[in-house]
Design goal:
The chain contains 15 helices and 15 strands. The chain is α/β, with parallel strands linked by helices. The protein has a four-stranded parallel β-sheet, sandwiched between helices. The chain has a four-stranded antiparallel β-sheet with strand order 5-6-7-8. A three-stranded mixed β-sheet has the order 12-11-13, covered by helices on one side. β9, α7 and β10 form a beta-alpha-beta unit. Bound molecules: adenosine monophosphate (AMP) and zinc ion. The site of adenosine monophosphate has 17 residues, from α1 and β9.
Length: 467
C-alpha cells in the first residue's frame, strides 16, 4: 500500500488516485527571472522522483509544471537588462531546461507559461466576479473576496481571523478584508500589460496555477506539490479560487518539501545565500546534486555544505563503480546454469527490490531507498567474481540500474571526454548557430555540460572549461 503525507490532513494517507491507474500531478514551477538555485531544485527533483516512482508502479502520470513568467521580479530584472519580460522569460526557460535535463528531471507532460494563458485567466476572474467571489476596484485591481469562501485557511489549518492576526499585511483601502488578494493588477507606468474588462493590467500570481491546472489536468487533480513556503498563501489561494469556481475538491493530496538550508537558514535569492544549479554544475556532475537531494526525506530540512556534497560524490561513485564492475563481469562471464549460492543471492536481491519499494511506498522515503541501493551494492560486491554466471551478474546489474532509473540516477562512471572531441563539438555548435539551428546548438551545449564541460560565449569566441 502506498502512503503519502497530506499537508491538508497532517497525516499519512493511503494513495488512491481519482481514476484508477492514472495520476494527475501539478507542481508549481520556477519564476523564470534568473538561473534557478539549488533550493528551487529540491522540489523539482523530489517531485520528479515521485513521478518516476508512480510510473514504475504502473501508473500513467500526467505531470504539469508551470513557468511563472510575469511578476514584479520578472519586470524588475527585464528593466535592468533592458529587454522585454518575454525575452527574459524565453532566455531563462531555455536555461531551466539545460539545468533540469542535466539533473535528470524528466520533461513535464506540459510546462505552461502564465503569459500564454491570459485569456483563460481573464475568463476565470470574470467567473469569480459573477459568483461574488471577486470584486473589481475603481483603479482596475481585482481582488478575491476571502470572506465569501468558508473554507479559506483549510490547507494550513487556520481560519480567516487567525490568519489575519498572524499576518503582516499592508492596509489597502481597496480591500474589503485584509486577507483578500489580487487576482488582477492594474498596470503601473512602465509595466507590461494586457487588455481586460478592468482596463490594462496583468494577472496576480496565484490565479495562473488555478487556471493552468484546470486547463491541462481538469477540475480535480490527484497531487499538488511545491515547496513548503507555498502552503500559505499561494496554495491556500489556489484552493479558494478553484474550489469556489468548480464546486469540487481541487486536489486530493497536497505535498510539500522542506527547505534546503545553508547554515540552517532557508536558501533564497532574497537572503543572497544561494548557489545556482549552474554554479554547482561547474564543480560537480549534476547527478551528484540529485543524489545529495534524494539522500534526505523530502519533508526533512536539508542543510547544504561542501562536505555533504563531497560525501554524496563518494557515495554515488561507489554505486557507479559497482555497476561498472558488474558490467565488466557480465561481459566476461560464462553462460552456465546459476549455482545454488547465486540463486540464494538473487533471492536476497529480489527482497531488496521489495524493500526499496516499501521505503518508497512510505511517503517516498528516498533516504531509506538509497540505503537499500547500498545494500544491493554490498551484496553484488561480495557475491560476484570472475567465476559468476552471466545470468546472475546480468540480473544484479539490471536490478541496480532499474533502482537508479526510478531515482533518476544513471549509475555509470562518466567517460572522460578528450580535448579534441570537445573542440569538434564546439565547432559543430558554431556551424549550427550560423545556420540558426539553435536546437542543435543547445543540444551540444547540454551534451557537453553533462560531460562536465562548461561553455562560455565571449567576445573572443567560445571558451570552455572542465567542471
Ligand atoms: P520560485 O521560483 O521562487 O517560485 O520557487 C520555485 C520552487 O522552489 C517553489 O516550490 C518553492 O517553494 C521552492 N523553494 C524555494 N526556495 C527553496 C528552498 N530553499 N528549499 C526548498 N525549496 C525551495
Ligand atoms: Zn502554483
Amino acid at each position: 500500500m502506498m502512503q503519502i503525507y497530506n499537508t491538508q490532513t497532517r497525516r499519512k494517507e493511503e494513495f488512491k488516485p481519482i481514476e484508477p491507474g492514472k495520476v494527475r500531478i501539478y507542481c508549481c514551477g520556477p519564476t523564470v527571472y534568473n538561473y534557478f538555485h539549488i533550493g528551487n531544485a529540491r522540489p523539482f527533483i523530489v517531485f520528479d522522483t515521485l513521478r518516476r516512482y508512480l510510473e514504475h508502479k504502473g501508473y500513467k502520470v500526467k505531470y504539469v509544471q508551470n513557468f511563472t513568467d510575469i511578476d514584479d521580479k520578472m519586470i524588475r530584472r527585464a528593466n535592468e537588462e533592458g529587454i522585454t519580460v518575454k525575452e527574459l522569460g524565453d532566455r531563462f526557460i531555455k536555461e531551466y531546461y539545460t539545468d533540469a535535463d542535466a539533473l535528470g528531471i524528466e520533461r513535464a507532460t506540459v510546462n505552461p507559461r502564465a503569459t500564454e494563458h491570459i485569456a483563460d485567466i481573464i475568463a476565470l476572474i470574470e467567473k469569480l466576479i459573477d459568483k461574488g467571489l471577486a470584486y473589481a476596484c475603481d483603479n482596475g485591481d481585482v481582488y478575491y473576496n476571502t470572506q465569501a469562501f468558508p473554507g479559506y485557511g483549510k490547507l494550513c489549518g487556520q481560519n480567516l481571523e487567525d490568519l489575519e492576526s498572524g499576518a503582516r499585511i499592508d492596509v489597502d483601502p481597496n480591500k474589503r478584508h485584509p486577507m483578500d488578494f489580487a487576482v488582477w493588477k492594474a498596470q503601473k507606468p512602465g509595466e507590461p500589460a494586457w487588455e481586460s474588462p478592468w482596463g490594462m493590467g496583468r494577472p496576480g500570481w496565484h490565479i495562473e496555477c488555478s487556471v493552468m491546472a484546470k486547463k491541462y489536468l481538469g477540475e480535480e487533480i490527484d497531487i499538488h506539490a511545491g515547496g513548503e513556503d507555498l502552503v500559505f498563501p499561494h496554495h491556500e489561494n489556489e484552493i479558494a479560487q478553484s474550489e469556489c469556481c468548480n464546486g469540487k475538491i481541487f486536489s486530493r493530496y497536497w505535498l510539500h518539501n522542506a527547505f534546503l538550508n545553508i547554515d540552517n537558514r532557508k536558501m533564497s535569492k532574497s537572503l543572497g545565500n544561494f548557489f545556482t544549479v549552474r554554479e554547482i554544475s561547474e564543480k560537480y556532475d549534476l547527478q551528484v546534486l540529485r543524489f545529495f537531494m534524494l539522500s534526505a526525506h523530502y519533508r526533512s530540512p536539508l542543510n547544504f555544505s561542501a562536505d555533504l556534497m563531497e560525501s554524496a560524490k563518494t557515495g554515488l561513485a561507489r554505486i557507479c563503480n559497482a555497476a561498472d564492475s558488474l558490467k565488466h563481469y557480465a561481459g566476461a562471464a560464462k553462460e552456465a546454469e546459476m549455482t545454488a549460492e547465486e540463486m540464494t543471492a538473487l533471492e536476497e536481491a529480489k527482497n531488496l527490490a521489495k524493500k526499496f519499494d516499501d521505503a518508497m511506498d512510505d511517503d517516498f522515503n528516498t533516504a531509506d531507498a538509497i540505503s537499500v541501493v547500498f545494500e544491493l551494492v554490498r551484496l553484488a560486491n561480495s557475491n560476484v567474481n570472475e567465476n559468476s554466471t552471466k545470468a546472475f551478474v546480468q540480473s544484479l546489474l539490471d536490478e541496480l540500474l532499474e533502482l537508479g532509473d526510478i531515482l533518476g540516477l544513471v549509475f555509470e562512471t562518466k567517460e572522460e571526454i578528450l580535448d579534441e572531441e570537445i573542440e569538434k563539438l564546439i565547432e559543430e555548435r558554431q556551424v549550427a548557430r550560423k545556420e540558426r539551428n539553435f536546437q542543435r546548438a543547445d543540444e551540444i551545449r547540454a551534451e557537453l555540460l553533462e560531460k562536465g564541460i562548461v561553455l562560455e560565449d565571449t567576445r573572443e569566441g567560445v571558451k570552455w572549461k572542465r567542471a
